Input
Amino acid sequence: YSMSTLIQSATQEAEYAAIHEYRFHFLQDQVKQLKLKKNDKVLDIGCYPPVLFDFLKEQEFDTYGIASSHEQLQDKNVKVLNIETDKFPWKDNTFELALLTEVIEHLPHNPLAPLKEMYRVLAPGGFLLITTPNAAKLHHRLKLLAGRSTSFPVEQMMQVSPEDNSIYHLHN
Output
């Protein structure tokens, strides 16, 4: 990567983290309430940008992640795969916690296969924490009242392709 690409990427990550600061604090509080033990195994599915991933490591969990091919994270414990088509590379009953935060709405296909994989790698009594944006939030309702769509513009939808993974940038 060139220096300008790295700076742009870091700036975009910082902007995303600032916009979603409330959500990240909420998720951190939810994880703390689970009272997991130090060195428990945790899986962050969709761990980019690494705000939550880094928090989990700071809590001294044995932290692993899944990143997509279009949002990669360089860490020895992060695997790049497509959760809709690839089998998770961990044994059954590996993790005490799996997180799928703000990811499920990006899946263009039935989420049952990745949910089954998450269940498979969760230890008995383990936790699965899933979040997704609120489609009925006030901002969206105001757009609807003004006669505007809350979805991506049709022009943008026409530019995506399953072959280049751009389809995963949309909310489905």
Remarks:
- The longest helix spans residues 3-19.
- The chain has a mean pLDDT of 85.
